[in-house]
Amino acid sequence: MLDQGKTYDYIQEFLAEQNAPMSRGTLYNVKEKLKESKELGIPFEDVLDKRKKTSITQVSDKLSGYKGEIKQADELPTEVVQVAKNKIWSTEQALDTIIEKGMRTLDMVDAIDEPILLKAIDMKEKYHGSENGGLTLQAIKQFQAITQAQLKGLYEVVMTHIPEDEQDQVYQEMRDTEQKVLDNIELSPDGRKLLVALRKEGIGL
Q1: From the CB of residue 47, how many other CB atoms can be counted at a distance below 10 Å?
Q2: Quick one: which of 151, 137, 158 has its CA closest to 200?
């Protein structure tokens, strides 16, 4: 009823009919504890049971080693209060918790919505791209240029050991072998998709 915004009069009348009368002050206290439970993210019963310490402001000032007064929550800086309520001590802790719960959720579903998939791809590129040592399109193109230079150098070395009148034939056999490798890659659906994607980005093989 409190969650639904019912008035104290309405709730008191209902409780009286149920032979469980409650004073307005007690109702107010329950409402505040319910609010506290939601803000702290702990069970309502734990908030009601003051024997359980749910925040640092509840710890006795008579503990060994204590040298100062314990301030009330409303005396502390807003940022400090918010952090204490959320029980987050570092961004890494929060992200690790989110990732852990997210992975457990993924294990229980068989499909991912397209917007989530696209966002995941975008974030993967953003956080694991060039800034973190991942491979970007530019890096792949640079790798292609290096590989082509290496092959050209190998061709030149090999050709120096082959009679000049046979070099054209050897070169053609090399090209034929390369083409056979590409043809074999295209036989599988994944291989074909890979080659198509690379060619769209101007990366030839």
Answers
A1: 20
A2: 137
Residue 70 is given by DSSP the state P
Orientation of helix 167-186 relative to helix 137-159, angle to 10°: 150
In angstroms, the CA 183 to CA 72 distance is: 74
Q: In angstroms, rounded to a whole number, what is the distance separating the alpha carbons of residues 42 and 76?
A: 21
Measured CA to CA, the distance from residue 7 to residue 28 in angstroms comes to: 11
Token representation of residue 121: 């791809």
The answer to whether the CB of 47 falls within 8 A of the CB of 54 is yes
* pLDDT tens, position by position, 58-83: 555 554 444 555 555 555 556 555 55
Instruction: Give dist(CA 81, CA 87) in Å, integer.
Output: 10
Report the alpha-carbon distance of residue 101 to residue 87 in Å, rounded. 17
Tokens for 45, please give them. 């019963």
**What type of residue is 158?**
V
Q: What span, in angstroms and rounded, lies between the C-alpha atoms of 157 and 175? A: 16
What amino acid occupies position 124? K
- Rounded to two decimals, the pTM is 0.33
